[in-house]
Write a structure and sequence with these properties.
By secondary structure, this protein is mostly helical. The chain has helices spanning 10-39, 43-62, 78-85, 93-108, 115-122, 138-167, 177-190, and strands at 128-130, 135-137.
């Protein structure tokens, strides 16, 4: 009698574990950088940092889908990540992500319409975003980015905790001082953020 080999080898799970931990640690580092930028009133970088925090947290979550071949998880585009995340993070998870992405894209392409538009923004003229359901000022969008990035990180860590527990691998876990010291190191925590 033959038995079927396991669908995913210990090596595959170890590689997923490393990706999960590396990307979630990167997500937290990006979030801390966004917070530091916001405190220093570097608002454009803060908005971008909050999105990239979500991007890396999402990349960690995508690694929980064992049906995605590991070759596809080496580098991933923004649209591919979003496509992989949608079935994994139902509402409100993807809603948080999409708001952060819309704010980041708005910041990246400020005044992209004309040279005059770019100069108006650089010279301090106010601007805002049309987020589909409502229009918000840049200040309001930065508050939303801060709030939604935290919410998205919470959704992601819950998903990661469940996956890691099910597969008996080490991963991000709320309140786990071992994970914090192993993957973030005290240097990040000592930063003036």
């Amino acid at each position: 009698m033959t038995t079927n080999p396991p669908k995913h080898s210990p090596e595959d799970l170890h590689e997923r574990q490393m990706n999960i931990n590396a990307h979630f640690a990167w997500a937290l580092a990006m979030w801390a950088s966004a917070e530091a930028a916001q405190k220093r009133q570097n608002h454009l970088l803060a908005a971008v940092g909050y999105y990239y925090s979500a991007f890396h947290a999402g990349f960690a979550v995508v690694n929980t889908n064992l049906d995605i071949p590991k070759e596809k998880l080496v580098q991933i585009t923004h649209s591919a990540l979003k496509g992989y995340l949608e079935p994994l993070l139902p509402f409100p998870g993807m809603w948080y992500y999409e708001i952060l992405q819309a704010i980041r894209e708005g910041v990246n392409y400020l005044g992209a319409d004309t040279p005059q538009g770019k100069l108006r923004i650089v010279r301090g003229n106010g601007f805002g975003f049309d987020l589909g359901s409502k229009k918000v000022t840049f200040g309001q969008s930065l508050e939303m980015a801060h709030k939604h990035s935290l919410s998205f990180l919470r959704v992601c860590v819950a998903k990661l905790e469940a996956f890691c527990s099910q597969h008996k691998i080490t991963g991000p876990k709320r309140g786990d001082s071992y994970w914090v010291s192993e993957y973030l190191d005290e240097d990040l925590l000592l930063a003036d953020c």
